[in-house]
Design goal:
single chain; 398 residues; alpha/beta; 8-stranded parallel barrel; two-stranded antiparallel ribbon; 44% helix; Luciferase-like_dom; oxidoreductase activity, acting on paired donors, with incorporation or reduction of molecular oxygen; monooxygenase
């Protein structure tokens, strides 16, 4: 990685309103990932959903394969693969293949399944989803270790001397993270297996206040199982829109955010737990939604990181279509230009170089004017007026 400090990226569910051409919407999602790759974003996590009309990507793996051919550098992960919906052997096999085909740019995000309607259609009980995720991830981690053949049996899958066709391209395996939203189960599972954490709850009202508490729970769980819980693998997921001025940013998103809240989260999903009636207003007050100028956004990220009481490895922005297409793409560009470098250590050297030149300009650039004047004189030509040195209060004035 060319920079140090925070990684930045998106969490692409995606969110497309019903009535929009779904074929074109998927094309825009691919276009967005390509745009982020060109801007230097680090990661894109792609969701898996099967119902409710808005979040229309059913296979993160297919999307990742297509996006990998259109990009060069950005890491591509599932955000998330709903583990109870798949046999763990097939999940491991597919992501090992992606790891090879992307030359190490694939990541596996794991979750129990966010939409209860998905699980309902497959006959999976909501109360079983988190247990099934834990069991599946345990099997996947054993398979990726590529040690002894894996045999295990649960009430929903079985492995008989199973081993992977290929070892992962990335040693010891590609990045893995578990999603955590409204309950501590995700962070406990991440700690148990010593993998990364996707804190979706950071973008919900009140969620940022629990970040440090949940992290400590994960550390305790990791210690219990002899694992290491690394903050570098912790990503905070929040809403963001950036414009040149705060007022412009608010105007960009107000209508689209309200449409999403009413049409999807209220009328379709019945407002899930922790989802407020005014998520934009409440999120702005709580610091879980970042809308404004680059300066406002940067301060918001600093406040968000302070809640972690020790920092995190990355910040992901929930990809949405609150603003029109042009303003959405512009938002990511403004962030990449004016906010991202502040957190990645890429501004210090240019600033120090500029300051050095400014402080020493008389001694450095003054003699060069004499050299230029001599060049004209040696050529037998008159020195232009704008290149003549003038004495001003005893100092050379360029």
């Amino acid at each position: 990685m060319a920079h140090r400090g925070l990684r930045f990226g998106i969490f692409l569910a995606p969110f497309h309103r019903v009535g929009d051409n779904p074929t074109l919407a998927l094309g825009r999602d691919l276009e967005l990932v390509s745009w982020l790759d060109s801007l230097g974003y680090d990661e894109a996590w792609i969701g898996e959903h099967h119902s409710a009309g808005w979040e229309i990507i059913a296979s993160p793996e297919i999307f990742i394969g297509a996006a990998a051919e259109r990009t060069k550098h950005i890491m591509l992960g599932s955000g998330v693969t709903s583990l109870p919906y798949h046999h763990p052997f097939l999940v491991a096999q597919r992501f090992v293949q992606l790891d090879h085909m992307t030359r190490g740019r694939a990541m596996l995000g794991c979750g129990p399944g966010a939409l209860v309607s998905d699980a309902y259609m497959m006959g999976i009980k909501a109360e079983d989803q988190r247990r099934m995720m834990d069991e599946s991830l345990g099997a996947i981690m054993q398979l990726l270790a590529c040690e002894e053949p894996v045999s295990m049996k649960t009430d929903w899958f079985e492995l008989n001397q199973a081993r992977l066709h290929l070892a992962p391209y990335t040693y010891p395996h590609f990045p893995i993270a578990v999603a955590s939203a409204t309950t501590p189960s995700g962070v406990l599972t991440a700690g148990k297996y010593g993998v990364g954490l996707l804190s979706l709850g950071a973008g919900l009202p009140g969620g940022n206040a629990k970040l440090a508490e949940y992290w400590r729970q994960g550390e305790a769980e990791a210690e219990k199982h002899g694992k290491r819980f690394d903050r570098d693998g912790w990503r905070l997921v929040v809403n963001m829109h950036c414009a040149e001025e705060d007022e412009r940013a608010f105007r960009d998103v107000a209508r689209g955010e309200r449409t999403e809240t009413l049409a999807y989260f209220s009328e379709t999903l019945g407002r899930p737990p922790m989802r407020s009636e005014d998520p934009l207003g409440d999120g702005l007050k709580a610091g879980t939604t970042l809308v404004g100028s680059p300066e406002t956004i940067a301060k918001g990220i600093e406040r968000l990181l302070a809640y972690t009481e020790g920092g995190a490895g990355g910040v992901l922005f929930r990809a949405h279509e609150w603003a029109n297409r042009e303003d959405t793409l512009r938002s990511f560009e403004l962030f990449a230009r004016w906010v991202m470098p502040r957190f990645q250590g890429s501004l210090r050297m240019p600033a120090e170089s500029r300051e050095w030149c400014s402080e020493n300009r008389s001694g450095i650039f003054g003699p060069s004017m004499g050299a230029l004047r001599k060049a004209f004189e040696d050529a037998g030509q008159e020195v232009p007026d704008h290149m003549r040195l003038r004495l001003h209060t005893g100092k050379v004035d360029l």
